[in-house]
Design brief:
The complex is a heterodimer of chains A (307) and B (351).
Chain A lengths: L1 H31 L6 H21 L4 H28 L8 H22 L4 E2 L8 E4 L2 E4 H23 L1 H11 L1 H6 L4 H27 L1 E2 L3 H16 L4 H25 L9 H15 L14
Antiparallel strand pairs in A: 1-4, 2-3
Chain B lengths: L1 H28 L1 H26 L8 H14 E2 L4 E2 L2 H23 L4 H21 L20 E2 L2 E2 L4 E3 L2 E3 L1 H24 L2 H11 L1 H6 L4 H27 L9 H15 L3 H30 L6 H19 L8 H8 L3
Antiparallel strand pairs in B: 1-2, 3-4, 5-6
Helix pairs in contact in B: 1-2, 1-6, 2-6, 2-9, 2-10, 2-11, 3-4, 3-5, 3-9, 4-9, 7-9, 10-11, 10-12
């Protein structure tokens, strides 16, 4: 029982991070109908930038939480600029090109970001200083750290903020209108280019936050962390129904829990044949199963190829 | 009549060039470069296989190297002391094609009826999963020997003679890498022939039709899903053959050789060379095998000479340039450096 609860809680932590990244995929997809492959790398850049700011601040004696907050701000700014640049350089010109073209530029952007990160930060795993309160609490037999609670709360607050932004503000209405029908939105005076750039910027800020949280959770960051995280977050977005904001959140949390439970129980279920190092495989199986049985995801509209 | 004679002369020239290439390269640059030529031929095969999927049918496959891995490990398992099996290469290679093709169908069936982007992500994941399995299937039953890989694989043998031993003709010793060169070039030419014939066949035209407009293709009575599956399976089977050759040539395989970057490399060959245009893809394969090697030998010393130290790791610099090249080519020459005329119109005309 306590193991079950423990895994559910670990899954919830991981899942809220997936949800933040998945939002970036789903927002861009909703408006442009394009999978921003490079999004995972933006998360990685966010995590490493934050680390680079965090370490000297902590060494200079700035209190831990404040150092993290400042690092997060720096990471968010860098990532927002990055997201804006990516859209401008790699996608804008190709908005009406055949589908293959933006996918390939996205791969190019991913490679460039990874290699730049490798040149700047090296190939090594960096340990992230534990600046946030990390005391353990025992809840119903499960060990829960304060960092985990913080991750869940911050993610939940951020997502509520995003929902308010999209559903209640003028800007959010413009975004929804552009997603619905860019031409008509433009006729109503919405500047589509601005809205699209804005979508990338918001998604990238969420990615920066996710990068900081995920490196705080695992205590490590490295240049290659964005790839598998991006893959999983994309799976989460598909699971929830790509293009649907609430879906991305639900999908993220669900995927986190599936993964944690799967990794926790796969050994028992298969009699020890498969171990927890197959954790990364679950996301992929979830993706395949969703694509076979419910390609529109849990909350999405039909996406099967029609046009 | 005259044109035909001209093309005969051209073919003859190419044949002579291909035949003397290893000796010229070996004499001028050393045997390391003959080995690189061997790899170039392997990569041309891979690029032609991926070209069927990406170039002809317009499906973005980002995990293509997984099929290469399947072929390589199949060879390694069936012809090494690991399981004590020593099947002949000529039995394993067709089997490798078949098994890789089946993997292709298994992967393609659920995803091909969806939008192209999904295929890209699923294949990306598939490539990664195959690597995870190769890394971890050493326990509880040791199948792949984990990260250590499988060593002492049997060399490919022709007429009972392992090619790696080389050959002695009239007192002159020809090293194994030269023999592999001829084998690989012959097989690559075979694959070129098959893809050229495929391109002009009913199936090839169906692929192009799907790439250009899937709905119109469907309306013309093409069973789009099956035809796409066929492209996927066929590309995969080429990858499987190339993988088997790789294993027999290296006599060693490990999961490390089958990372995402390898998939991206092959994709670069297809995209930069000119998607769907066979001569473009061949040149893409050749250049992208040879240039990075030249780069590896040249970039370090060059930086040393100019800046007094190595500022950028040549390996990352190489990948960085590939990434930038992918972006620039897509933005400014979306049909590749040497595109097929029809493809160029298609990519420039917009949607």
């Amino acid at each position: 029982m306590d193991i079950l609860l423990q895994q559910v809680f670990n899954g919830l932590t991981l899942g809220s991070i997936y949800a933040l990244v998945a939002l970036g995929y789903t927002m861009v997809y909703g408006i442009l109908g394009l999978i921003n492959f490079a999004h995972g790398e933006v998360v990685m850049i966010g995590a490493l930038t934050a680390l680079a700011v965090m370490k000297p601040l902590a060494a200079a004696g700035v209190p831990g939480p404040l150092a993290v907050l400042l690092a997060l701000l720096a990471a968010a700014l860098v990532c927002m600029a990055l997201g804006f640049t990516i859209e401008r350089v790699a996608y804008r010109r190709l908005r009406n090109a055949p589908r293959l073209a933006p996918l390939i530029t996205a791969i190019g952007v991913s490679i460039v970001l990874q290699q730049v990160a490798m040149l700047v930060w090296g190939r090594n795993y960096h340990s992230v200083p534990a600046l946030l309160p990390s005391a353990n609490h025992e809840v119903l037999g499960a060990q829960i750290t304060e960092v985990q609670i913080l991750i869940i709360v911050v993610a939940a607050l951020t997502m509520s903020g995003l929902m308010l932004l999209v559903n209640r503000t003028r800007m959010g209405r413009a975004m929804r209108a552009t997603a619905e029908n860019p031409t008509v939105a433009a006729l109503m005076g919405v500047d589509a280019n601005r809205i699209i750039a804005l979508t990338f910027v918001i998604g990238s800020a969420l990615a920066a936050l996710a990068g900081v949280l995920v490196s705080a959770n695992y205590g490590i960051a490295h240049y290659h962390m964005g790839f598998i995280l991006g893959l999983k977050a994309f799976t989460a977005a598909v699971l929830g129904g790509i293009g649907n904001l609430a879906g991305a959140m639900v999908g993220g949390v669900l995927l986190g829990i599936i993964e944690a439970l799967g990794a926790g129980y796969i050994g028992d279920l298969t009699g020890g044949v498969l171990g927890s190092h197959y954790q990364d495989v679950f996301a992929f199986f979830v993706l395949i199963v969703v694509l076979i049985f419910r390609p529109s995801g849990l909350m999405g509209e039909k996406v099967a190829e029609r046009a | 009549m005259n044109a035909r004679r001209k093309s005969h002369v051209g073919i003859l020239l190419i044949a002579v060039a291909l035949a003397v290439a290893p000796f010229a390269v070996g004499a001028g640059l050393g045997n390391t470069w003959v080995r690189i030529l061997d790899f170039a031929a392997l990569y041309v095969m891979l690029a032609l296989g991926l070209n069927i999927v990406v170039g002809f049918a317009g499906l973005l496959d980002l995990g293509y190297i997984a099929f290469y891995a399947v072929g390589a490990y199949l060879y390694a398992l069936l012809a090494s002391p690991h399981f004590g099996l020593h099947w002949p290469a000529w039995a394993i290679l067709p089997l490798g094609a078949l098994v890789a093709g089946i993997f292709g169908v298994l992967l393609g069936a659920p995803t091909l009826r969806l939008r192209g982007d999904y295929l890209a992500i699923v294949t990306l994941g598939f490539g990664e999963i195959i690597r995870i399995f190769l890394n971890n299937l050493n326990a509880p039953i040791n199948i792949t020997n984990g990260p250590k890989g499988i060593a002492r694989i049997d060399a490919i043998a022709v007429a009972g003679q392992p090619l790696s031993r080389g050959l002695e003709i009239a007192g002159m010793k020809i090293p194994g890498i030269y023999l592999y060169y001829y084998l690989f070039v012959l097989l690559a030419l075979g694959i070129v022939f098959v893809t050229v014939r495929l391109q002009d066949s009913r199936i090839g035209r169906a692929w192009v039709a799907i790439r250009e407009d899937e709905i119109a293709a469907k309306a013309c009575g093409i069973d789009t899903r099956n035809v796409k599956l066929l492209a996927f399976a066929m590309g995969a089977s080429f990858g499987g053959v190339a993988g088997g050759l790789f294993a027999g040539f290296q006599e060693f395989v490990s999961p490390e050789s089958f990372g995402l970057l390898e998939s991206v490399m092959v994709l670069c060959m297809v995209v930069l060379g000119g998607m769907g245009h066979i001569p473009g893809v061949i040149l893409g394969g050749l250049f992208l095998t040879v240039l990075p090697e030249a780069f590896r030998h040249g970039a370090g010393p060059l930086q040393q000479a100019v800046f007094g130290k190595v500022l950028l790791d040549p390996e990352s610099l190489r990948m960085l340039l590939f990434g930038i090249a992918l972006i620039l080519v897509m933005l400014y020459r979306p049909a590749g450096v040497w595109p097929e005329p029809r493809r160029r119109r298609e990519m420039q005309g917009g949607k």
